[in-house]
């Protein structure tokens, strides 16, 4: 699955499972949200809702459940799929990271320090 490779390169942990509910218990210390859609090529994940935006930005650890059928071929299709499901759409693809003027990389400055994406492939 190409998106899993892309997300890992972006710094996210990725699990591919048949049923996300079976593994969600392991993530009690994380904020869990459900993706509206994602782009297979870039790993951009679209989420929706004002509360999801606020909670995911404040969370130290964010877990995103993504259904395989919501993975689209390109970012425009993924965005259109998300917009059809929510009026408030935002995107993510990795843990929050920024660098200072000397190039020192810092995680978690503007969002979660750690991101796990659970891709649910169904049966």
Automatic annotation (TrEMBL):
One Pfam entry name: LUD_dom
Gene3D superfamilies: NagB/RpiA/CoA transferase-like
InterPro entries linked: FTHF_cligase-like_sf, LUD_dom, NagB/RpiA_transferase-like
Signal peptide: none
Domain LUD: 56-119
Protein name: Putative ACR, YkgG family
Native source organism of the sequence: Geoglobus ahangari
